[in-house]
Specification:
mainly alpha, two-stranded antiparallel sheet, two-stranded antiparallel ribbon, 20 helices, 2% strand, globular
Length: 467
């Protein structure tokens, strides 16, 4: 594939944002152009209209690469979920108009459109960063025995599951335990997807047990994302071999999860986090309520408008900065570098949560006495650092770092399957959500270290051999 594209093609990525900016006085139209602009970016970036896609594998067999998976989850969540909040601002509940005399809050609508334009700009900058360093095919430096790939992935699933559990008993190694748990989740799912087409019954049963355990842990976590991702990743891994079956089952299943999980989570948290039931009993009660439709109320619309999207919180930051709080410049980035230093070497190191929450309080998003966390997303920190320019620079670097690490993983681990599908997807899930600067940079840095620890282990055991 050609690795160089002219500047004029990069400009095409920013046309939706520029058009929405030109029409910023028409709040509704400006919002819709910016929102639809992200779908335009999905289309032209994943169909090779701007830069040819990697041709070393067919599309179905490279869906875990950043241009597909990371963009789908990160940009999809960031840019496309605000539509429900937009309708809510216009006076709709469950897409039904409250009444004909409803007075729209023009200032709130203006802020919503402004934030959606920032999302569109961020999406374009992120894709630009991916394209700038999307250079395939990757020249791998190591190889492994292809015939034993299924067995290798199955063994890695067993080892990472066991090791991640073992490391939980050591406080100083909790960082690596968390990362290996993420790798084990991907390894188990990938092993299951490999075992099913080959009809390896014992492998399938063992993987189903481990997958079921991971799914159950996600179910009693009180969070929606692990449940949805466990289903999404399995579907993506199975898709190359079962395209029609996956499309007909996993897409409706994901939609169903989006419908029922808000109610499930609300009931689960009320009882598990409230202290009157343990997690297992709370989960059973929540599932019973969902399937009996007992307790289903307007929580789904509240979830869609205020929790599925983070635009409501974003508008509060935009409202306060720079009107009341100055842009932070490079301060947030410099703070982020300090989080990398292990506390064992710096016992008095500031608590990351406290540093992050300081700008939350400064912006008036939550009061200092509140128990809410409300940590800003990556795009919010980018905006707080330097407005539109801060968003462009930060999101370009975000996309570039994501793509460069994915390529490095393929070089180290002998190609796409171990490099991108297993190691990159397992270790660098921080790119999917886009956390605040401090948490993201710390996680990516130590995930990079963990990647090399896994690489050296595979080299030492002669599983990976230099070419």
């Amino acid at each position: 594939m050609s690795n160089h594209i002219p500047i004029s093609k990069y400009i095409i990525l920013f046309i939706p944002w520029l058009l929405a900016l030109l029409l910023k006085d028409n709040y509704i139209l400006s919002y819709l152009i910016a929102w639809l602009g992200s779908f335009f970016l999905f289309y032209i970036s994943t169909t090779g209209k701007i830069k040819p896609l990697p041709d070393d594998r067919n599309i179905a067999e490279q869906l875990m690469r950043p241009i597909f998976l990371v963009q789908l989850i990160f940009a999809g969540y960031m840019c496309c979920t605000s539509i429900f909040y937009f309708f809510d601002v216009l006076g709709y509940i469950d897409f039904n108009k409250v009444n004909d005399s409803y007075l729209i809050d023009e200032e709130k609508l203006n802020l919503t459109a402004q934030c959606q334009r920032y999302y569109c700009l961020a999406h374009a900058a992120f894709v630009s960063g991916l394209f700038a360093f999307m250079r395939y095919p990757v020249e791998t430096k190591h190889k492994y025995e292809r015939a034993g790939l299924t067995k290798l992935i199955f063994n890695m699933a067993l080892i990472t599951v066991s090791l991640s559990y073992f490391l939980t008993f050591f406080n100083g190694l909790s960082q690596f335990s968390h990362q290996l748990r993420s790798v084990s989740f991907i390894a188990v799912t990938l092993a299951l997807a490999f075992a099913i087409p080959q009809n390896k019954i014992w492998n399938i049963l063992a993987c189903l047990v481990m997958y079921g355990f991971n799914f159950y842990q996600a179910l009693i976590s009180g969070f929606k994302e692990p449940i949805i991702l466990s289903v999404l990743i399995l579907g993506l891994f199975l898709y190359p071999n079962y395209k029609k079956t996956v499309a007909l089952t996993f897409i409706p299943l994901l939609l169903l999860l989006f419908i029922v999980l808000p109610t499930y989570n609300r009931i689960f948290r009320e009882h598990a986090w409230g202290g009157d039931l343990n997690a297992e009993d709370a989960s059973e009660l929540a599932l019973s309520s969902v399937f009996s439709q007992d307790g289903t109320d307007d929580s789904n619309w509240s979830f869609l408008t205020l929790r599925l999207s983070e635009i409501d919180m974003f508008t509060k930051y935009v409202q306060s900065t720079p009107a009341y709080v100055d842009h932070y410049g490079t301060q947030l980035f410099r703070q982020s570098l300090t989080t990398i230093i292990p506390r064992v070497f710096w016992p008095s190191k500031p608590i990351t949560e406290t540093m992050v929450m300081e700008r939350v309080y400064n912006a008036g998003v939550v009061s200092r006495g509140s128990r809410a966390s409300a940590k800003p997303a990556f795009i919010v920190d980018a905006y707080l650092s330097g407005g539109s320019l801060g968003i462009f620079i930060s999101l370009f670097i975000f996309g570039a770092a994501c793509q460069l690490i994915a390529i490095r993983a393929e070089k180290l681990f002998g190609g796409y399957i171990l490099g991108t599908a297993l190691v990159f997807t397992g270790l660098f899930q921080a790119f999917w959500r886009g956390q605040s600067f401090e948490f993201l940079i710390n996680t990516v840095f130590w995930s990079y270290i963990t990647m090399y620890l896994i690489f050296w282990t595979l080299r030492f055991t002669n599983i990976l051999k230099p070419i």
